[in-house]
Amino acid sequence: MMRTLARAAGAILAVALGVLVLLGLCAGYSPSGWLMLLAAGVVAVGMMTARRRQSRRRGVARAGLALFALVALGREVLAGRGDTTMITLPAGTGSRWLGRVVDEQDGSLVGARLLKMVWPSLPASEQAALVPSMRDAFVAMRASEGTTASPVLDTLLSRQGPDAFDTLVIEPHGRAPSAAVVFLHGYTGSFTVECWMVAEAARAIDAVTVCPATGFDGRWWSPDGERILRATLAYVAGRHVGRTYLAGLSNGAHGASLLAPRFASSLAGLILIAGSSREGSTGGLPTLVVQGEGDTLSSAAAAHAFAARTGATYAGFDGGHFVMMVRRAEVRDAIASWLRRTSPN
């Protein structure tokens, strides 16, 4: 009876793994993601085979579990050993373990493929470029930063709040930071790869990039969102790095344009990427507006109007709402150039 149940469970696991493998072939998993799938496959084989030798079946399944545990342990140990770390604010403690177990790439590329199916208004050019661009960004981030933690799973489990929230901290390579960029994520939560893309530009002025996480919907203008930003700015102030810029993407940009006037006295500038609010302002700060001219969610017309009304610098690109991803090098260079112009020599 037990052998029959084990074989049935193994068969179900094998079918699920087959689906995951097909998704991985279409979208692309990280090296650790493929190893975890291999480990799960070994477990499935052990459960389904060796009908007469229960000890052999258990041995194969245990080997698969051991491989899975080894990969997870390796990520636990290696995540955050480079210039990219994740801490828990406001206490300032280390990252929560769940954020270190799974590589962010393993779900993001699958999610990007599903997004194309449920967002028919996404421009055709961006539909074609989104997944390859995201895959390239993850490969480049891994080459630059090594193994990194991610806030995604804790966000999906609603574990981001003013009393404890994941915060990514990306340092300049080989230098002490002389400035800071605080980056507010958009809808669907904080992603390490987006934080890193901003950090690539921020390193042009030797800035540390600090990316706090709020809820899945990215409502930074809510009381909880404002408290999280306030605690993040307090952390940055405690590092004594000098000038601090506030940046935001999509909902994060919408929130930044609403919150900037309240925090203007502690900020040196504002960067709004693919989003702003009609009721928002720059708070008198030097501001860069980065916009995809084909954005169907946050229109270029609204971005132009915001820039004209506030005197912000406008940087438009051939792209849609995911312009920062699909035009990664161009957007990075534009932000880096603006940061250099607005920073003291």
Care to describe what's here?
With 345 residues, the protein is of the alpha/beta class. The protein has two domains: 2-78, no CATH class; 84-342, Alpha/Beta hydrolase fold, catalytic domain (Rossmann fold, 3-Layer(aba) Sandwich). 54% of the residues lie in helices and 14% in strands. The chain contains 13 helices and nine strands. The protein has helices spanning 2-27, 31-48, 54-78, 98-101, 105-118, 124-145, 152-156, 192-202, 223-239, 251-263, 300-310, 323-326, 328-342, and strands at residues 84-89, 93-94, 165-170, 179-184, 207-212, 243-249, 269-273, 287-292, 313-317. The protein has a nine-stranded mixed sheet, sandwiched between helices. Helix 10 (251-263) links the parallel strand 6 (243-249) and strand 7. Helix 1 (2-27) crosses helix 5 (105-118). The longest helix is centred in the first third of the chain and has 26 residues, at 2-27. It is globular and about 70 Å long. The termini are far apart. The mean pLDDT is 87.
